[in-house]
């Protein structure tokens, strides 16, 4: 795939901000935020007695448009809850970019929703899935295989660290050492399935220094972005998960070297005194594609 083709196949998902569906003012304010993804929440952020009102507000907001380049994702309640079925029906009618399924643990949590989307002819609506339980860890292989099946239209996984902590008893501490094996398992699920994956939230939104460190950690792990709970977290997050100017320049230099006629059949070349393999150039193409996609959004 050429770098120009990758630009059109990659969508920046550096920052994904949860917006409570019951807060009409927040839904309107989101139209002006520098955010890649809006997670319009009908689940955890909405009290039971406000579920129906939130559903109506969110679906009207999505159908009404005005969000520009921002990817719109509706997090519905679980299908076994009293609200799940109606959430899904209303969300599909509103035509967001995707519906986000909570507490996904197996193919059985995904396939009925994919079947419904197909039956409704909702070809543009994708599925995102929350990984936030011990069950998801134990069924990692099954979930990864489900993501590989185009019928299931799984584009993105989101790590739910708060629920994972609650259900496992593991504490979320600076550095997240006790969670790391599970986080990397979830990363493997996404990569085997060909999906993006976003990190969990950082609860203390006033601690921007700690938040920036966790963003840096997530980017180093290979995650594609991070979920957020407050707009003040947007700047550090967008910076951490975007390629730096130096990274882009180095990627372009590698790509150019491999595209020289004398190097097109080589598996490795020297660039500025460093031995570079063709796989590094392929990684570089993705880096350039992400940077170009971000630039396209900023200029939209």
How would you describe the overall organization of this protein?
There is one protein chain. This protein is 47% helix and 16% strand. The chain has helices at residues 3-9, 24-29, 51-64, 84-94, 111-119, 134-138, 140-148, 161-168, 180-193, 208-221, 234-240, 245-259, 278-298, and strands at residues 15-20, 37-41, 71-75, 98-101, 126-131, 154-159, 196-199, 225-228, 268-271, 274-277. The strands form two sheets. It has an eight-stranded parallel β-barrel with strand order 1-2-3-4-5-6-7-8, surrounded by six helices. A two-stranded antiparallel sheet has the order 9-10. α3 runs parallel beside α4 (84-94), α7 runs parallel beside α9 and α12 crosses α13 (278-298). The protein is globular. Mean pLDDT is 94; it is low at 1-8.
Question: Which properties best describe this structure?
Answer:
300 residues; alpha/beta; 8-stranded parallel beta barrel; two-stranded antiparallel sheet; 13 helices
Brief description of this entry?
With 300 residues, the chain is α/β, with parallel strands linked by helices. The protein is 47% helix and 16% strand.
Report the helical percentage: 40-55%
The largest sheet, given as strand count, sense and whether it forms a barrel, is: 8 strands, parallel, barrel
Decide which structural class fits the backbone.
alpha/beta
Number of helices: 13
Radius of gyration: 20 Å
> What average pLDDT do the residues reach?
94
What's the N-to-C terminus distance?
A: 25 Å
Shape: globular
The H-and-E topology, N to C, reads as: HEHEHEHEHEHHEHHEHEHHEEH
How do the strands of the widest beta sheet line up side by side?
A: 1-2-3-4-5-6-7-8
Task: Tally the beta strands.
Answer: 10
Strand content: 15-25%
List segments where confidence is low: pLDDT < 50 over at least 5 consecutive residues.
Answer: 1-8
